[in-house]
Design a protein that fits this description.
Growth Hormone, Chain: A, transport, disordered N terminus, membrane, 3 domains, MFS_dom, disordered C terminus, 497 residues, mainly alpha
């Protein structure tokens, strides 16, 4: 039976929250966090685990290079384009229902990809994965938001969620290496099925339904505009890897900007907006979204090109490369609980300003790599600093981006957080590929690129990502304005009717 979602005022005075009946008490809420964490891990793992499997899949299915690239692009297109619509569906249709359907659909799409016998079948499966992930990801974050409406428990819960978001990609590299090396590439997709079964079995008795009340009409013009606009942007950035002057790059990026501008105009006038402008109008929340774009871009660049360096220059196997990426994840996991404690002491503004600078320092250290250098001297220190810096950002970011959101907007606001990170990843892939290509062209000799030229390209990617992170620091300093006491209030035990 669904619950009423008439907003109640939380103890810390941050604004409307979901009713107490949607926020389970005691151990039950931590079990809910475990279920949501499984869903988040599945979505985050999928990006890097599939990347590791691509070379083997291409050979097995006789795919062209264009099809191999499309395996990544079609997922990003479906996921990025449908996120805001998925968030609103979760708000109106029900967050528990959307979570379960999204998880089940993602598992079925993964199974289809895991048994694919052709490139076309794999591409179709990846598109379906992206579509269901666009429903699952905002529903999961919205469930977390209404389960932990305020206070210190909310900070701890989002610390766990942020840790998975920051470190899950590196875990995907390891798991992808293990599955590809010892089983087959098929299992890099099939592994999602048992995870989903466990998550759904736990979600059905644990999660309580919650949905928006009042006007629940869908904003069809807004949905069409934002879906087409985000799809155009993601596709335009994906094509920019081949050159920023290409007609399709310029056309789709320009079209995306025009469509999103039209979306904003429509949303500011309609009474049942897909993305209410009140969600974006808050300066602090807008600053969090901007930081999410930059950090998402830098993280993609760091992981992708560091993996290239490990495998292509240093000759590591996929498994070895994945294991070599783990120190960053370990640093995030160790730092995140400490950051959660600091959040109520120093506030998010300081943490989100210092974090990008620490992460940028780590990337600059990684920018000193050489062909004959050692992992311990040239990579490990930078990875550890990068992990610490990301934890300083990720833990407060999720809290700040969803703080004070009205109960009816929890799903779409959660989708906006994920969408900014997705767009950041697309921008990062395109920009860093362009940087790498430009440096490689200048550093290559008449016989083509040698290892030294490749390393020079990777090093400049790390430096470019560091510059982007440095730019995020003043954004956080001048835009993030939240009283630290809002993260220390103790919630009263919810009354379950």
């Amino acid at each position: 039976m669904s619950v009423s979602t008439r907003p109640a005022v939380p103890a810390d005075g941050t604004g409307p929250a979901e009713p107490a009946s949607a926020a389970p008490a005691g151990r039950r809420r931590w079990l809910v966090l475990l279920v949501v964490a499984l869903a988040q891990l599945t979505v985050v793992l999928d990006a890097t685990i599939v990347n590791i499997a691509l070379p083997a899949a291409q050979a097995d299915l006789a795919m062209t290079d264009a099809q191999r690239g499309a395996v990544v692009t079609v997922y990003a297109l479906a996921f990025g384009a449908l996120l805001l619509l998925g968030g609103r569906i979760a708000d109106f249709w029900g967050r528990k229902r959307s979570f379960v359907v999204g998880m089940a659909g993602f598992a079925l799409a993964s199974a289809l990809g895991g048994v694919a016998t052709s490139g076309e079948m794999l591409l179709a499966a990846r598109g379906l994965q992206g579509a269901f992930a666009a429903l699952l990801a905002p529903a999961a974050l919205a469930v977390l938001s209404v389960t932990f409406p305020s206070g210190r428990d909310r900070v701890r819960a989002f610390a766990v969620y942020g840790t998975i978001g920051g470190g899950g990609a590196a875990v995907g590299l390891v798991l992808g290496g293990v599955l590809t090396e010892f089983l087959s590439w098929h299992w890099c997709l099939l592994v999602n099925v048992p995870i989903a079964v466990v998550a759904i079995a736990a979600a059905l008795p644990l999660l309580k339904e919650s949905r928006a009340d009042g006007d629940t009409r869908y904003d069809v013009p807004g949905a069409v505009l934002v879906t087409a606009g985000l799809a155009s942007l993601v596709y335009g950035f994906s094509q920019a890897e081949g050159g920023w002057g290409r007609w399709d790059t310029v056309t789709f990026l320009a079209l995306g900007v025009v469509l999103l501008a039209a979306f904003v105009a429509v949303e500011s006038r309609t009474g049942h907006a897909l993305l209410p402008m009140r969600v974006l109008a808050d300066r602090t929340r807008g600053g969090a979204y901007l930081v999410a774009v930059v950090v998402g871009a830098a993280l993609i660049g760091a992981l992708l090109y560091l993996t290239f360096h490990f495998q292509i220059v240093w000759g590591m196997t996929p498994l070895q490369a994945g294991l070599a990426s783990l120190p960053m994840t370990a640093a995030i996991m160790v730092t995140a609980p400490l950051v959660a404690k600091l959040l109520g002491t120093v506030g998010p503004r300081v943490l989100m300003t210092v974090g990008p600078l620490v992460a940028a320092t780590g990337l600059l250290l990684m920018g000193t790599i050489t062909v004959d250098g050692t992992y311990a001297a040239q990579v490990l220190p930078g990875q550890l600093l990068l992990g610490v810096g990301l934890a300083l950002v990720f833990v407060p970011l999720q809290n700040v981006a969803l703080l004070g959101i009205e109960a009816r907007d929890a799903g779409v606001a959660s989708a906006a957080v994920t969408a900014t990170q997705q767009i950041g990843g697309s921008i990062g892939t395109a920009v860093f590929t362009a940087v790498y290509a430009a440096v490689l062209t200048g550093a290559s000799g008449p016989q083509g690129p040698d290892p030294a030229a490749l390393v020079e390209g990777y090093a400049w990617v790390f430096r470019a990502a560091a510059i982007g992170l440095v730019a995020a620091a003043p954004v956080a300093w001048f835009m993030i304005r939240v009283d630290r006491r809002r993260f220390t209030a103790v919630e009263p035990a919810p009354h379950l009717g």
